[in-house]
Each structure stands twice: as C-alpha cells, then as structure tokens.
Amino acid sequence: MAAMLCVMLSGVMMVNVTSGAAETQYLFYFQDGEETQLYYAPAGSVESAMKALGKTLGENDSYTVENTSRDVYTVTITRADSCTVKADGETAIVSFRPDETTVADVLEEQGIVLSEDDLVSSDLTALVQDGETITVSRVTYENYFTDEVIGWEYDYEPTRYLPEGKVKVFSNGSDGKKVVEKRKVYIDGELDHEEVVGETVTSAVTNGRAQIGDSDAPIDHLEQPEWLTFDENGIPEQATKVISGLGTAYTSQLGVYGATGRYLSEGYVAVDPKVIPYGSKLYIVTKDGSWDYGYAIAADTGGAMRSGRILVDQYMNSYDTCMQYGVREVDIYLLDDKDAHTEID
Questions:
Q1: Which of the pair, 323 or 220, is modelled with greater confidence?
Q2: How far is the C-alpha of 161 from the C-alpha of 179, rounded, in Å?
C-alpha cells in the first residue's frame, strides 16, 4: 500500500541572547506511514529537511507541500506501489505510481516487447495493483506436414423394408488421402499442445452405399406432385379410371434401366403398355389397405404384364421388400393431368 509521509513545518521565532537578534526557525512535521517525526531548521527547504532526517524518495515516489501558517508547512509524500514482473526467465521488482499505471506501462518501462501471440497474465489496459505479479509467456510455433488416410464409411439409407437393424450392402467405398499441416505450440520453450492448421485433400474418399432396417423410416416413393389431391375416402381427385388386378414387386441392381430407358428406382412400375400407356401417372393401393405404393409412373414392362397374368409390377429398393410384398390385389388409379404423358416418351 502506498505510504503517506507528511511533513509539517512550523515556524518558531528564536532570540539570540548574546546579540539580541531574532532568528526564524522552521518546524517540519514528518509522518511516514505510521511513523511521525519533527525537525527544526533555519531554512524553509523541504528537500534539506528530508535529507537531514535521512528520508529519500524512490523514482516513483512523490510529495505535496501545504503552507498551513507563516512558517509552518505540511508535506504529504506518496510512496510508490510495487509489482513483480516475470519474463524471459528473469524476475524484477518494479515500483509504479498507483492508480495511474497500466500493465502495458510497466512492460514498456522494463523494455519488454510483446509479439502478437505472446501471453500476458493481466489485461494490458488494466491498472496495476500493489503486490501483483505480471507474467509474460513467450509463444512460438513449429509447423510440419503429414500424409493421412481418409477412411471411407457406409452411407446408410434407412428403410422400413428390411428387418430392424439388418443391413443390405450395395457397394463398398475406397479410402481417400490428404496432406495435413499441423503445428506444435511452445510456451516459454516447452511444448504445450499441437493443432491442425489446414489440410488439402489429394485423393477424394468414396463412401460405400447400404440400407439399414428402420421401422420408423419413411416409405420412399417417387416424389408426389403438389397437384395431386384426395377426397374424404382417400381417392385421388384427379383419377379418371381405376383398374384392378394383381400387383407384384421386383428389384434389380443399381443402374439398371427399364423398357422406356428410364433409370429404375422406387416409384416407377412395369405395366402392359397396351393397357396402361408408358408415361401414365398412377396412384396404386392394395384393396385391403395393407400397402399403399402411392404415386407412380409407368416406365417398364415384362412378360407377366404382357400376358395379362399381372396388372402391375412395382419397383422396390430391395429383394427383402419384394419378398415381403409378395402378390396382392391392387387398385390402380389413372390420373388425369395435362403433363401426364410428357415425362416419358
């Protein structure tokens, strides 16, 4: 804590008995913290009075003087606070003026220059507190590069057409490669941690494709158009005709095309084009309500359809789904739309 040194100088008239001449004496009143001292001097110099009492001022100590009467003075001295500065392996005790010196001021006075990444234990703009320890930590870096493998994974597509948790693999993937830039972070020469600076992919990873059974998964169909609406019985309002018969299900390897040249995926079905023209937009449901295939487009054909034994063969994403579907009685609603025969030629 800053110590207050008060000096009161009180003038006292002294008479020389021999000569009868009057001599002026100055009274100095000193209070240094808890210590109080008085001093008489023939001259009104604060500096000489302090010197005579052996009181010295440090670099950042200060004092004020108040002349309380003719030859009486009060001097108030404010002692500097001190802090400890640790930097670059050295420790220094530094005095400073309280309530006006910031951490940055102390470091500048000590000739400590900071780099952008160096760490300081206190905010540079904060006022230094008496007894505080200010620590400067030097931060340096060491960069290096590593070649790393990007491991491939399966992209799992949830489906309710497989038993819960069962996986059906369509294709495996292949690993990728990347160059990773890393750096070691040193604090005062000691390794603190490592971090990734950036990375460059030199060979892209290809994930495998698989399905996994999930009873909560949505049923994947060809996207239903916004114009399709239903009445209170769930019948499409755009239906112009309904045809009933047997429905089956089929699947294939990925990348297989149907009779119309359309890539086969769920929502595209096989029909007899003489009964249901290619490109017709359909809505397919089972008569007993057990399975709604939903919105579909006629895009393929097969011998069973051309012979009339089967009305529709519905494409599904997996063999297990087809086996689960089996053969069911279906109603096929032919939908009237101005674009009904333009999607597939």
A1: 323
A2: 41
